[in-house]
Specification:
The chain contains 20 helices and 12 strands. By secondary structure, the protein is an alpha+beta fold. The strands form 3 sheets. Strands 2-1-5-4-3 form a 5-stranded antiparallel beta sheet, sandwiched between helices. Strand 11, helix 20 and strand 12 form a beta-alpha-beta unit. The N terminus is likely disordered.
């Protein structure tokens, strides 16, 4: 707009909101000059110099500028408008009284429309939503022209001898159409929205826009050249093509083209409307009615399309944000159809699973981890059976050793379709959490001094082994360090702890899976053995004693100490409890001590 109108049009700069306008006398004169040119052209092209114009876009031009500016800038613009209107009517009509009356009445109409639309347009934009369309049509199509129609008709009747009722109807329709058709166009032109829209189009889109607008213009010219056939309906196709292909801003250009071509040609007796009447004012009314129906039909359609485009853009931006968050937060979002196939993947699949996105799309949930396929599919079936319930499963990553993943499944009822529910899966890396939980569990099960299992953890595993029908025969041994109280009393607790740690280390080195070792407390150790016979269990216990007796233990002081241990072994059998076995092994270890210590005593 700046380039096309030159430096004198800096008041109409597309960057006005960034730089701010200071409306001087010069800018008001420029606005008045444009108003004068537009208005004089419409009077010359659509009237005989006495009647009311078929359409009046000059008021829309000033209204658009007022809607863009704060109210302190209004007086200068309204003054320019009044002067431009007065000059246009003097040049085309030549009556000072009528010209002054028209200028004052148009000023009133513009002011009413600006007062009613200024705040709503600032908040929501112009014609962006259905609600804004209704408000815009009410103000520009009813209230503003109604505020001036009777006064305008009175001036037309008094000074130009026009029938009052016809003049009132023509004035109302003329101004209503002018405001509805041209205000959005001028508003987006002066704000820079049209220029920005054009710049945003690629080369192919610009050619398409020119072609579609050219089709509408040529069709309009062809329709309004035809005075023998009622072919106005032919315009519907290019109008809808413009609306769907060019969007809201392109549609404004189309409406303006149609309004200008139709009003000028109808005023000169061309087009299908001439079939209705040879009287120029009557033709004007028919054209105004036709154009009003076109505008009222197309505005809601385009507003709905614009709103839908805004929603789609917001969804696209939201999806991009979700994708970014998923990638940065080590989260994978998966969408599954009712038949169990994966339809959507959001997130960094490679970093999470070590596979590509294609390895998941079209596959079922088991593709996440083939070794955990059965529990994953079972969880999927449970999610379908329990809509809105969140179900979770933690499993190891098959292609990333040491990494743990958690799948959270939910079947939202809002996504249920004719073929059944769909399932959403949130997959996240929980390795840190898993390791932390494992560390806590180990700490809770570990003897702090020796690092072996503590009694509680050992007894839990012993009870589980006794319940397991697949396990071989279970045996239980108690090892008690001989004369440990003497060591503690003579060397101190610190030295006693060092002895227990050394004993635990040697015992652990002599025990092999699936046998299980723990520190029961004090100087006592427990050993669970899985073997077929008591003799075999006794052999394994002897191996532990040999490891302890093989060589002296090195003490922190530099001295050495030979340690002897007594062992009580209780043979296992079905139907025994862990407490029963512990009681029998305890009795056996006391028997070994009574027999001279440093030996094994076994009971079947």
């Amino acid at each position: 707009m700046q380039q096309s109108m030159g430096a004198t049009m800096d008041a109409f700069s597309p960057s006005e909101r960034q730089h701010g306008w200071v409306f001087s006398t010069a800018s008001a004169v420029v606005a008045g000059l444009i108003y004068f040119l537009v208005s004089a052209a419409m009077v010359r092209l659509t009237t005989d110099g006495q009647g009311i114009a078929t359409m009046w876009p000059g008021n829309a031009l000033i209204l658009a500028l007022l809607l863009l500016k704060d109210r302190p800038a209004w007086p200068a613009l309204l003054t320019g408008c009044a002067l431009g209107n007065l000059a246009a009517n003097l040049v085309t009509r030549g009556h000072i009284g009528g010209s002054a009356g028209y200028a004052a009445i148009n000023l009133l109409e513009i002011w009413v429309a600006a007062r009613l639309l200024h705040e709503p347009v600032r908040r929501r934009g112009i014609l962006r939503y259905s609600a804004s369309v209704r408000q815009f049509v009410l103000v520009t199509g009813v209230l503003a022209p109604a505020s001036s129609a009777l006064f305008g008709a009175a001036v037309a009747s008094l000074f130009y001898h026009q029938p009052f009722l016809r003049a009132a109807i023509t004035w109302f329709a003329c101004d209503a159409l002018g405001l509805m058709v041209f205000t959005p166009f001028f508003h987006n032109l002066f704000s820079g929205a049209l220029a920005g829209w054009w710049r945003a189009q690629g080369h192919a889109r610009r050619l398409e826009a020119l072609a579609v607008l050219g089709l509408l213009a040529s069709t309009a010219i062809g329709v309004f050249e035809t005075s023998r056939l009622p072919v106005l309906f032919v315009l519907a196709l290019p109008e809808m093509l413009v609306a769907f292909r060019l969007g809201w801003l392109g549609t404004q250009l189309g409406i303006v083209l149609l309004a200008l071509i139709g009003s000028i040609m109808t005023a000169h007796g061309f087009g299908p409307i001439s079939l209705a009447s040879h009287d120029a004012p009557t033709r004007a009314l028919f054209f105004q009615f036709f154009l009003a129906t076109q505008v009222l039909l197309i505005l809601p359609v385009v507003a709905s399309l614009a709103a839908s485009a805004s929603v789609l853009n917001a969804l696209r931006e939201s999806e991009q944000s979700v994708q970014l968050l998923a990638e940065e937060a080590a989260v994978l979002l998966l969408g599954f159809a009712a038949d169990g196939t994966c339809l959507k993947v959001v997130g960094n699949v490679g970093a999470m699973l070590g596979i590509g996105e294609r390895a998941l799309l079209g596959r079922d949930l088991g593709a996440l981890s083939p070794i955990n396929r059965t529990p994953l599919l079972e969880l999927y079936a449970q999610a379908l059976a329990q809509p809105e319930t969140v179900l979770s499963l933690e499993f190891s990553s098959p292609l990333r050793p040491g990494r743990w993943l958690e799948a959270n499944l939910r079947a939202p009822e809002t996504l249920a379709g004719p073929q059944g529910s769909s399932v959403l899966v949130v997959l996240q890396d929980v390795t840190d959490r898993h390791d932390a939980q494992l560390a806590l569990l180990r700490a809770a099960e570990t003897d702090e001094l020796t690092g072996l299992l503590n009694r509680a953890a050992f007894m839990s595993r012993l009870e589980a082994a006794l319940r397991d029908e697949r396990a071989t025969r279970i045996h239980l041994a108690i090892f008690d360090v001989d004369r440990f109280k003497v060591i503690n009393d003579s060397a101190g607790h610190a030295m006693g702890n060092a002895v227990l740690q050394a004993v635990a280390e040697r015992m652990a080195g002599a025990v092999c899976a699936p046998d299980l070792l723990c520190r029961m407390g004090g100087d006592e150790f427990l050993l669970m053995l899985e073997c077929a016979s008591l003799a075999e269990a006794e052999t394994r216990c002897q191996a532990v004693l040999n490891a302890l007796h093989g060589q002296p233990i090195d003490l922190p002081t530099g001295d050495t100490l030979s340690v002897r241990v007594s062992c009580g072994l209780a043979g296992g059998g079905r139907g025994q409890s862990s407490e029963q076995m512990l009681h029998r092994a305890d009795a056996a270890v006391y028997a070994a001590k009574r027999a001279g210590r440093n030996r094994i005593a076994a009971v079947a």
